[in-house]
Design goal:
about 375 residues, alpha/beta, 6-stranded parallel sheet, two-stranded antiparallel sheet, 16 helices, about 10% strand, binds NADP nicotinamide-adenine-dinucleotide phosphate, binds fe (iii) ion
Length: about 375
């Protein structure tokens, strides 16, 4: 089977990189739509920097700042209507995965009339507003992926729009915007990035390029485990986490995610558990499952974290995750059925059966004394 690697996003990185490279946005059009969440971009300096860059290019802008966590389909259509009304030429997303994912759907829907029932149809044209992304969490890697993941109430899960036309043209990585990010979001997003790189290595589409990016990303994140737990991250470590998350994004842009993400979507949809945390709760048990058939692959992943076995990894994750939520047997049964329906299952190097996912949930949520 032949494998491929594709990464069309120009990544610009370093302190003050938006202002230093504002000219890169000059060619994107006369008027920008800035897509962001309700608060954080206004407080961490990212919105101010983007506006200064636009002003220096004499570009106009409007702001859509209504993106909620786990953005809905309705939010994407509302943002697209706002984009059309304001006749914008390009989109700038500022924020975590939620505004970045919403921005991709908005850039698509602003140019193509797609009814909601066909939104996940995978038949899009290249007519999409050009996009520049500024991640302000270090986790999703959405700034370098072609995925827009939306909360889909009809399907009772999160569903992704995936298209090569949804890659942002530009990504600006500046870790200074993350200085005030809470430790709970910092930990959850770092675990999301870790999950991307680990799952990328357990995907049938993994290849030598994605493996090298994934191993570098895993190493960078593991070098921050202790500081994440003690809440003592340095600026340099915040930067490492940001680069690791972008590398993880490049990995899943090419490999996709696996069963961990599909199981995690139910934890987010039904139990309101943050996306990264949801993956983190399941990751060690899934590694234990894969280790039964591919011990060498799991050893390679663990060695990049300087860990000897899955138990050691499980201890690290438990230290970061703290007190776990509880799940009933009925909930587990429902989430397993939903996960089994996703295409992520056939993307796994070791394809899990229903009982394997059931065991993964049970081991993950096992409490001492159960
Ligand atoms: P998020 O939902 O984007 O943001 C979480 C919270 O952090 C929000 O309250 C946000 O506030 C705040 N925040 C963001 N940046 C901040 C900063 N620098 N300082 C202080 N607060 C900040 O969380 P996320 O984990 O980054 O994204 C999760 C979403 O990404 C999920 O929907 C998930 O499915 C998706 N995802 C996408 C991909 C992909 O490839 N496209 C991959 C993995 C996950 P504001 O709302 O005020 O901004
Ligand atoms: Fe993710």
């Amino acid at each position: 089977m032949s494998k491929q690697f594709f990464m069309p996003t120009k990544v610009v990185m370093g302190n003050a990189c938006i202002l230093a490279n504002s000219v890169l946005m000059a060619e994107m059009g006369k008027k920008a739509l800035i897509v962001t969440g309700t608060n954080s971009a206004k407080k961490n300096g990212s919105l101010e920097d983007v506006i200064s860059a636009l002003k220096s290019n004499l570009q106009a802008y409007v702001i859509y700042d209504k993106v909620m966590a786990n953005p809905t389909i309705e939010c994407a259509y509302e943002g697209a209507a706002f984009a059309k009304e304001n006749k914008v030429d390009f989109v700038i997303a500022i924020g975590g995965g939620s505004p970045m994912d919403a921005a991709k759907a908005i850039a698509l829907l602003a140019k193509q009339d797609i009814p909601e029932e066909n939104l996940f149809s995978y038949s899009y044209t290249s007519d999409v507003l050009p996009m520049a992304f500024v991640p302000t969490t270090a986790g999703t890697g959405s700034e370098v992926t072609q995925y827009s993941i939306l909360t889909n109430h009809k399907a009772e899960t999160k569903t992704s729009i995936a298209s090569p036309f949804l890659f942002p043209k530009l990504a600006f990585l500046d870790a200074k915007y993350m200085a005030g990010l809470s430790y709970s979001t910092t930990i959850n997003t770092a675990i999301d990035a870790l999950s991307h790189s680990v799952e990328g290595m357990l995907s049938i589409r993994s290849n030598t390029i994605t493996d090298s990016l994934a191993l570098e990303s895993i190493q960078l994140i593991a070098s921050c485990f202790e500081s994440l737990k003690l809440q003592t991250l340095t600026e340099k470590q915040r930067e490492s986490l940001l680069y690791a998350s972008t590398l993880g994004g490049m990995v899943i842009a090419n490999t996709g995610t696996t069963a961990v993400h599909s199981m995690g979507y139910s934890l987010t949809y039904f139990k309101d558990i943050d996306h990264g945390r949801a993956n983190g709760l399941l990751l060690a048990a899934f590694l234990a499952f894969v280790a039964e058939s591919c011990p060498e692959r799991i050893k390679t992943i663990l060695a990049s974290m300087e860990l000897k076995n899955v138990d050691e990894f499980s201890k690290v994750m438990n230290g970061l995750l703290g007190e776990k939520e509880t799940l009933t047997d009925n909930e587990i049964e429902k989430y397993v059925k939903l996960a089994m329906k996703t295409k992520n299952i056939s993307n796994c190097t070791t394809i899990p059966k229903e009982e394997d996912l059931c065991k993964t949930f049970k081991v993950s949520f096992h409490k001492k004394g159960d």
